[in-house]
Amino acid sequence: MSVSPAALRCEKLVxxxxxxxxxxxxxxxxxxxxCFGLLGPNGAGKTTTVEILEGLxxxxxxxxxxxxxxxxxxxxALRQRLGISLQETHLPDKLTVEENLRMFRSFYERGHxxxxxxxxxxxxxxxxxxxxxxxxxxxxxxxxxxALVSDPELLFLDEPxxxxxxxxxxxxxxxxxxxxxRGRTVLLTTHYMDEAERLCDRVAIVDKGKVIAQGTPAExxxxxxxxxxxxxxxxxxxxPDEMSQLPSVRAARRSADGIALAxxxxxxxxxxxxxxxxxxxxxxxxxxxxxxxxxxxxxxxxHLRE
Amino acid sequence: MNAPPAIPERTRSPLWELTLARLRIFxxxxxxxxxxxxxxxxxxxxxxxxxxNRPAEPSIVAVTSAELQGALQGGPQLKPGLLEESEAREAxxxxxxxxxVLPGPPIAYLYDPARAESRLARALADAALHxxxxxxxxxxxxxxxxxxxxxxxxxxxxxxxxxxAGMWGIGYVLVDMRTKKLLxxxxxxxxxxAAFLWSFVVMRxxxxxxxxxxxxxxxxxxxxxxxxxxxxxxxxxxxLGALAFAGLGLLVASRARNTQTVSGLINLVMxxxxxxxxxxxxxxxxxxxxxxxxxxxxxxxxxxxLRAVMIxxxxxxxxxxxxxxxxxxxxxxxxxxxRLFRWR
Lengths: 306, 344
What we know:
The complex is a heterodimer of chains A (306) and B (344). Chain A has 306 residues and is an alpha/beta fold. Chain A contains eleven helices and 13 strands. Chain A has helices at residues 46-53, 71-81, 97-106, 114-120, 136-148, 166-181, 193-199, 217-222, 240-243, 266-277, 292-300, and strands at 6-17, 20-31, 35-39, 61-66, 82-85, 154-158, 185-190, 202-207, 210-215, 228-234, 249-255, 258-263, 282-289. The longest helix of chain A has 16 residues, at 166-181. Chain A starts with 5 loop residues before the first strand and ends in a 6-residue tail after the last helix. Chain B contains 13 helices and four strands. In chain B, strand 1, helix 3 and strand 2 (78-82) form a beta-alpha-beta unit. Chain B has 344 residues and is mainly alpha-helical. The interface between A and B is large, with 41 and 33 residues.
């Protein structure tokens, strides 16, 4: 068995459902100790990919290696070392938080004491509550706790904060950051840019079953050519090509109701942009720091949450 | 990887944890507990009352002469009423009278031979009018335990209960876990599939130790229904029955993707047995042509074996054939279900 420094690797991964190609030749490599994000819109193939990596779905083609092992050969040993939280799991309603966790703990040869995990996810005072009485955020933290109870080397989280309120999301982020701080590896999927930027060392942007860009969040944002985004709308249409010639403007594209510019230095670009746009009847102008959302829009022309 | 060593913690076996989870979930769902324990008791009360052994009602006879009325007034089993002939015929037609007797000679009996009450009334009237005709007989009413309807019914209810508890408690619950993605989540752990399935079998076996005594204890206290044979044999037969229906429950759950589908399948499997397996009335009422089919239904086998032990006091040899049918049902359904089962 070759020892691989990669916690996770897949090459030319393909999954077809009849005529539909859900995953279309996807390559990934996740190093031990990093938090890697799969970022993409709904239906991009993130969950299918993750479920193949988790050994819960068979690929149509391609190869998968997890912790240097293969599903076909080493399933038993692999399952002992992974923590998995699926996109939606309905844990038994009538079991308490602690009972659910003890049941999951019993499946693993080694792991964390249940008390410690309850502490880790902040559910200690809810230990005796039936699962059905938990809030959405608490249920999600329990789901993550069930994945953490084996003290896994590699943790899979499929859209862990979808549908949660901001406070619950931040609580879950802390759990993930705490896990990562102990040198463990995380693969998570999300369609929230802020989540990917906050948690992930590296992200792969996935669209239509393919990785269309990959790197650290900072690298991906830098690939736009500017750290700032200026959006403006005018009464009469501006030409994006002309706008991209202005000083410090690195890229320009049409957006829903105007033009979006990737700008390197705002104080250099803005006077020129204003001078050019004002004769066309400027109706709106706003600026923000470039995000992964801008990267996605730049690459696909669509928004992540369309 | 340089993971810090995890602190070992004393954990219980997965089989025990899974069984415990099944029991907790069951007892925390009051509806499910009612259907398993309360429903058969209510059913036995209702049917026990409906088919209780009543003192014989006198037969109602319409006569058209006072002389006949006097002649029939002798015994407690006849209640002669004096009517005009047209009224008497009307009473017979509407079922208010079982028999009309018209003066002769010869004396005429008007009755519907398809009605059992009418035939009875005719026989009684005939006997009263010809006291020296047929030889005297002695009536022996049959009311001792062992031969009443309730004695027939209780083993049937026990069998029916073992069937529905197995089918719903395993078939439905498994599909519910599949729809809620819980099955998939469990498959993402190293949990052994055998331990998971065994937890259902162990739960059914533990339940049996509650279900059987509750129904039998109740039947004894209220209806004085006893067990003529050995109690361990009865438990053994029940266990085989529970296993056979656990296998069938597993089989109906093996492919179904949602609870509507599995509910339909469960009803499809159970309905013919409710009717044809002798729960409420004997399978002997069905034509000979279908008897071989009825005989191999697992609920027929279970009911036959339970009745043999409870009513006839049969020993192991007396229930060997139905027990073999149950064991075969269990083995075949388990094997098929394991091949077909959709784990994700």
